[in-house]
Automatic annotation (TrEMBL):
Keywords recorded for this protein, A-Z: FAD, Flavoprotein, Membrane, Oxidoreductase, Transmembrane, Transmembrane helix
Record flagged with keyword Membrane: yes
GO biological process, one term: secondary metabolite biosynthetic process
Species the sequence originates in: Lophiostoma macrostomum CBS 122681
Protein name: FAD/NAD(P)-binding domain-containing protein
Xref: InterPro entries: FAD/NAD-bd_sf (IPR036188), FAD_monoxygenase (IPR051104)
UniProt key word Aminoacyl-tRNA synthetase: no
Highest taxon of source: Eukaryota
GO molecular function, one term: oxidoreductase activity
Annotated Gene3D superfamilies: FAD/NAD(P)-binding domain
Transmembrane segments: 21-41
């Protein structure tokens, strides 16, 4: 673990002597992204040293349920096969066996839920190789923390400053402690401060997350209660759609509970004004968001709000991230590529990041041990090569997820998205009749394949190959890595 120092007034004042001579990677943030990277680094043989710094006082699952697709499960498997096995032990599918491969079923949010529509009962989307799995975040986090020894995590350590000083990175915490590391991985969430460190100088316009124009309310409801409200609809994943908002429901905790997320299109002038991610409102305002929105809301769905906290969670994203690293500092998870949750793929992208980054760092750790123990220009160059290879493999795919999930949210609101779905029906540009839903379903039944079916083993090969190419290239150019 990194050693503490006295407290100089500026990071630059610290002399360049290493205080953590051994190679040790700092991970900022113990969310799904940071923990998954920690599992990957621990699983490497020999384990790659790291320290997680988390601002919270303990592991805390923010939010409620989380659904994971086949790519996420494969990433878990490749990070550490026990990770996937343990997740599968707690993962919850749809209640009815015939819905095993169904991601969600389309309904309308308006009164009657669309039961009179011709597509009623045929609104499933999913895929043969897709298997519905969801979990309570706390259960997922419990599994992940079980892999990471508590001596590798330092809680109540809010990172305030990060600066590269020579061939090391210096971190200062809110409590004034200062530590040094060989490299830093920022996985501090959508509003994470490490984004400023990586992008601030070169791309200041892309530092701040952008508001997606939607906020959510959330609830976890006992299955018996949900069945009392929705009947048989409660046991399987559903998406209730309308122009003004949409509500998703799916079973978690082995079917004992239902996770509910109520999405509202924000039509207020100026959109999200609070500087915080959340905003408390009255229960009346929360209900009005859905009774008064375009398309209205079925009275059964409104009863779900009895179990929701009147707390709006603004949904922010990073549609453009020009790079995921600068020299010895790298971004992972939502701080790099937060997206709206419409494709239920954000956590999966964190897991993919963790897989690829842990593998390329593993290659570095195994193949070039002689230069890792002490800070040097050579060590900096080789870490940069690993981060560059990670950036090249991960960024195009992760950023595509951010853009396509935004479009997906438009589909749930039966709006014309920025893609080749023509929702016109008899000249009705944005109706919500049968024709529209058929097109929406056609789209939903094909739009997830590139996420779910992706060749992650291929990505692992690609990142390792690219890393070695970059090391060789540096050598060919007469650079210092030639001697490695
Ligand atoms: C409503 C909603 C539903 C979603 N549903 C799904 C879903 O079904 N499937 C899916 O795949 N994804 C889903 N997502 C997305 C998914 O939750 C995120 O992509 C994922 O949790 C991000 O993890 P992370 O580790 O990058 O960030 P976070 O979980 O935000 O973790 C960041 C951590 O960093 C810590 N931290 C922050 N700043 C500092 C600092 N300065 N110093 C030290 N520590 C710090 C925080 O305390 C936190 O613990 C959903 C998102 C939302 C909003």
């Amino acid at each position: 673990m990194a050693a503490a120092t006295s407290t100089p007034t500026s990071l630059k004042e610290i002399d360049s002597k290493p205080q953590t001579p051994a190679f040790n990677i700092a991970i900022i943030g113990a969310g799904i992204g940071g923990l998954a990277l920690a599992i990957g680094l621990s699983h490497h043989e020999p384990p790659i040293p790291f320290t997680i710094y988390e601002s919270a006082q303990q592991f805390a699952a923010v939010g409620a349920g989380v659904g994971l697709g086949p790519n996420a499960l494969r990433a878990m498997d490749l990070i550490d096969s026990r990770f996937r096995q343990q997740y599968m032990d707690i993962a919850t599918g749809n209640g009815r066996p015939e819905k095993r491969h169904v991601m969600m079923e389309a309904m309308l949010m308006r009164e009657g839920l669309g039961q009179e529509e011709s597509w009623w009962g045929k609104g499933d989307w999913g895929g043969e190789r897709f298997e519905r799995t969801g979990a309570h975040r706390k259960d997922l986090l419990d599994i992940m923390t079980g892999f990471v020894g508590s001596n590798y995590v330092r809680f109540d350590k809010k990172v305030k400053e990060v600066e590269q000083v020579g061939d090391e990175v210096v971190l200062r915490f809110e409590d004034s402690e200062v530590v040094r590391h060989a490299a830093v991985v920022g996985s501090d969430g959508v509003k994470g401060f490490s984004r400023q460190v990586v992008l601030g100088k070169r791309y200041p316009e892309y530092v701040k997350p952008k508001y997606t124009g939607k906020y959510v309310y959330r609830a976890i409801i006992k299955m018996e209660v949900a069945k009392g409200i929705l009947g048989g609809l409660a046991t399987d994943a559903k998406m209730y759609m309308s122009k003004g908002g949409n509500i998703s429901t799916y079973p978690i905790t082995e079917g004992r509970e239902v996770n509910v997320v109520m999405f509202k299109r924000d039509e207020r002038e100026g959109g999200w004004r609070s500087s915080e991610n959340t905003e408390e409102v009255s229960r009346k305002e929360m209900i009005a968001d859905f009774t008064e929105c375009e398309g209205g809301c079925d009275t059964r769905l409104l009863r779900l709000f009895d179990h929701a906290k009147p707390l709006r969670w603004g949904i922010f994203h990073h549609p453009t991230t020009p790079t995921y690293y600068t020299s010895l500092i790298c971004l992972l998870g939502d701080v790099a590529h937060a997206g709206g949750p419409h494709q239920a793929a954000g956590a999966g992208q964190c897991l993919e990041d963790a897989l690829i980054l842990s593998r390329v760092l593993g290659k570095l750790y195994s193949n070039h041990p002689s230069i890792l123990d002490a800070p040097s220009h050579q060590r900096t160059r080789i870490i940069e090569a690993a981060f560059e290879a990670y950036d090249e493999v991960r960024r195009p795919r992760a950023q595509k997820q951010v853009l396509t999930t935004q479009e997906c949210g438009e589909l749930y609101n039966l709006r014309r998205p920025a893609m080749d779905v023509d929702m016109d029906r008899d000249g009705d540009e944005e109706g919500e009749g049968d024709g529209d839903m058929v097109k929406v379903l056609q789209n939903l039944n094909t739009r997830f394949e590139w996420i779910w079916e992706h060749d992650l083993e291929g990505d692992v090969r690609a990142v390792e190959k690219r890393f070695e190419e970059l090391v060789r290239r540096d050598g060919d150019d007469g650079g210092e890595l030639a001697r490695l």
